[in-house]
Specification:
- Helices cover 30% and strands 12% of the residues.
- With 445 residues, it is an alpha/beta fold.
- The chain folds into two domains: 94 residues, no CATH class; 332 residues, 3-Layer(aba) Sandwich (Alkaline Phosphatase, subunit A).
- The strands form three sheets. It has a seven-stranded mixed beta sheet with strand order 5-6-3-9-10-4-11, with helices on both faces. The chain has a two-stranded antiparallel sheet with strand order 1-2.
- Helix 4 packs parallel to helix 8 and helix 5 packs antiparallel against helix 7.
- The protein is globular, with a radius of gyration of 23 Å.
Length: 445
Amino acid sequence: MSTSTELATRRRVLRGMMGGAAVSVGLPLLDCFLDSTGRAFAGGAPLPVCFGTWFQGLGLNPGSWEPKTTGAGYEMMPHLGLLAPLKSKINIFSGLRAYVSGAVPVHVPGHSVGLGGAMPKPGVAPGPSLDSIIADTIGSRTRFRSLEVSCDGTPTSYSTRGGNARNPGEHLPIALYTRIFGPEFTDPNAASFTPDPEVMVRKSALSAVSDERADLAKKLGAADRTRLDEFFTSLRATENQLNLQLQRPAPLESCVVPRKPEEQPTGRLIHEALAANKAFAALLTYALACGQTQVINVNFAGTASTLRKPGSTDVYHIYTHEEAVDPALGYQPTVTWFQSRVIEALHEFISALDSFKEGDGTLLDRSLVLYTTDHGYARYHTAENIPMITAGSAGGRVKTGIHIAAPGDSMTRVGLTLQQALGVPVSSWGKDQNATSRTITEVLG
C-alpha cells in the first residue's frame, strides 16, 4: 500500500486513548488527500488593553474630513461633526495611501494594506490581518481570541489568520448574544465556580493523539507538514482557551450580563445596518468588559457597499459612481448622506465603549479602535488620502486628540504604530512598497 493510499484510509482523523476511551481529532485537507491538480485582576494588576477595528467601504469625501491644521489644536471638520464630543479621545490620520502596482484594484487597497500590510498577489496567500497579529499578543488568555460582526446582513469580516480564508462575521445580534452569554458563559463575579467536565474532555483530546500525529508527520511531504503544523498550532490555541474555562476567572467589577436583544431584521437597508451596529456595540462592550475577549472587529458595510435607502433599488456603491457632483454644494448629495450615516454609526460604537464606566475612566480608555475604509475617493477608486481614525488610548499607551498629516506615506505606518503600542514585538510591518519601519512617534505614549 502506498503512503498516499495509507494516509487516505485514515479518513482524515488521528486516534488516541484518553481515560480508557477512544478519542479522535480531524485533520485539515492535506495535499495527500487530493488529486494531482490539487482541486479536490485581581491583585492590583491593570485592566487588560483591548483592540478593535471598525471598517466601512467607499471612503469619505476628500476635503470634507481632514482637519486644516495638525497637532493637538486642530478643528474637527463638519463631516466628522458627530465625533466632536469625543475629539480628546480621537486621533485623525490624513494623507496616507496604499501603494499598488499598475491599475488600482477595485475596492481592495484600504483593507488589504491598512489591515493586512500588503496588496494581494496571485497565488500568494496573504499574511494575518492586523487584529490577528495583535490578538497573538493580547488575546491568548480570553475565551474568544477575537469576535467578528457584520452589520449589513452578510457574514463578512476583514479579519484573517493567514491564507485566503477570512474569519466569518456574525450578522445576527441575537446569535452573538447566545454565543457570548449562553450556557458556556462564566460570570467572573459569581460567588462560586465549578469547572465543566465536558470542557475537561475537549481540552485533553489533542494530547491524546500526539503520538499518532508525530507518526503521521514523518510520512508527509514538506508542504503537508507545514500545513499540519499550522493546523495543530491553531488547535493548540483553542486548547489553551479551553484550559482557561477550567480556571476561575479574575473578577471584573464592571461586568454585568446584558439583556438579551430582541430579534430584528438584518439586511442592506441603511436603518437595519444602523440598528445592528447599535446592538453589536452594546454586546461587544459587555464582552470586553466581562473579559470574554480583548479583540473585536466590526464590518459596518463592506467594500462596494450595497446598503440602500428604503424604497430605493439603487445602492450606495452605485451612487458613488453615477451621482453627479452638485455644482453648488461641491459634492455628491446622496453619497454624502450615506457617509453621514456611517459617521453616525461610528459615533454610536465609540460612544458605547466610552459610556461604559470603569472606575475613574471608561472602557474606551483602555481600548484602541481603528477605523479605516477602502478608498480615498470611491468615485474614482483612488488609493491616496485614505481616511484612518483611532479612538481610545489603550490605557495611556497612545496619546490622543491629535491630527497627523503624513502625505504619501503608506497606511502601514499606523498599523506598525498600533502593534508597538499594544506590545507586539515588531520593528517593521508590511510588504514591498508598503513595508515600513517608521512608527508615528507623535501618538506613542
